[in-house]
Amino acid sequence: MADIRLVEVTDRPLDPGAIERLVGDDRAGAVVCFSGNVRDHDHGRVVASLTYEAHPTADSVLKDVAQEIASRFDLVALAVAHRLGPIAIGDAALVAAVSTGHRGDAFAACAALVDLTKERLPVWKHQVFADGTDEWVNCA
Amino acid sequence: MADIRLVEVTDRPLDPGAIERLVGDDRAGAVVCFSGNVRDHDHGRVVASLTYEAHPTADSVLKDVAQEIASRFDLVALAVAHRLGPIAIGDAALVAAVSTGHRGDAFAACAALVDLTKERLPVWKHQVFADGTDEWVNCA
Amino acid sequence: MPATVEVHLFAAARAAVGHSVLEVGPGGLADILGRLEADYPDFSAVRPRCSFLLDGTAVHDEGVPVGAGSRVDVLPPFSGG
Amino acid sequence: MPATVEVHLFAAARAAVGHSVLEVGPGGLADILGRLEADYPDFSAVRPRCSFLLDGTAVHDEGVPVGAGSRVDVLPPFSGG
Predict the structure, then answer these.
(1) Contact C9/C72 with Cβ under 8 angstroms?
(2) What is the ipTM of this complex?
């Protein structure tokens, strides 16, 4: 079963390159790393600022997500981290990285890790737009 | 059409984190980066050393590959690089990164960029095993 | 032993109600939520999209009884990543 | 104008022949490759897996004539990544 090398819900900036290096391994022929980054536009509106809030169970939910992906795919290692709090445009909100022996599974496993995290992780994105309006994403 | 930010066939080490940062952009909501790394085993045998050789057309072929992927997918940016010459175990031989507005296409586009590079790029991998034997990969 | 139920509200649910935590009387979950909607009309727009935890466990039936001393978490749709 | 064809060999093809470049007489491509197989028996194992460029353009028919002054590139299967 895969080494789970990082599971983190944190208010510190995420470094995708560092998280990608965490899953590197002499046995790993392929590494795929996803970064979900904060955009300056959403549905055509200019985003001025953005904050993520988490439920207290977020850490343990993300551990469960990592375990489930580790058990579903033949991975060497995986790492996943989600940012909390205020976050600057262009910064990474979610970083997910996997390594595999051969490349076949790497894209599918990383995509599944991202999808399951987005489905299960109890975090909420609050956007403030340049026109002063705001929204809780997915809850309009 | 996507910004093609790097197309490189080089004998210098590749830095996946730096290549991933190259495709970052305030318009990009998702970045996917693939690294194909040199493994210490192949088909159960211990790899002692490994070298990549390229045909003189490799640079222009890789440019064509990048253009084709840029035209097939709705990308913000892409970057692709292949290493040549002697390469240490664990080092990246191929790095491909794409950024997209939304995450849907990012995994598919990066996987297609990797597949097309492996199919078309005229480079050859030579492995020397710990037992002293060697092989040109795919040409046994 | 407290005589009330603690309702913890997150994100859009907290914004609609204006409080992170409310103390409410026990009852069926649907009944408790109905009282919240009556007291905080903005909550009505959010409630249908929320999921709920009762003492940390996901609720599948809003008829579940919520006794004094219990905790309810009100979770709007997640929007991570 | 040279009287010969330059054959450039790469990777496993070069290893089988022992040279990076050979000067050979003109003729059909299949004929030239047959002469190489006769002179370098190890090349026979590699040739069926190779593709060829004639003056930089991919060859689809090994019957193509290769005139004096032309260049043939012998490319084993690629193995990048």
Answers:
(1) no
(2) 0.91
- CA–CA gap between residue B62 and residue B118 (Å, rounded): 10
Q: Is C41 exposed, middle or buried (0-12, 13-18, 19+ CB in 10 A)?
A: exposed
Per-residue pLDDT of chain B (140 residues; tens, 9 = 90+): 889 999 999 999 999 999 999 999 988 999 999 999 998 888 889 999 999 999 999 999 999 999 999 999 999 999 999 999 999 998 999 999 999 988 878 999 999 999 999 999 999 999 999 999 999 998 86
Sole residue written with tokens 């445009």: A89
Torsion of CA B110, A76, A111, A71, to 10 degrees: 160
Distance separating alpha carbons of residues A118 and A121, to the nearest angstrom:
6
φ/ψ of C14, rounded to 5, equals -65, -40
**Residue B80, token pair as written in the block:** 């692709």
Chain centroid to Cα A79, Å, comes to: 9
Beta bridge partners of D22: D7
CB contacts < 8 A (A, B) = 101
CA-CA distance, D81 to D68, in Å (whole number)?
36
DSSP B51-117: EEEE-TTHHHHHHHHHHHHHHHS--SEEEEEEE-EEE-TT-EEEEEEEEESSSHHHHHHHHHHHHHH
For domain D5-75, give the CATH number. 3.10.20.30
Q: Chain B residues contacting A, CB < 8 Å?
A: 15-18, 20-21, 24-41, 89-90, 101, 103, 106-107, 110-111, 114
Chain B CB within 8 Å of residue D75 CB: yes
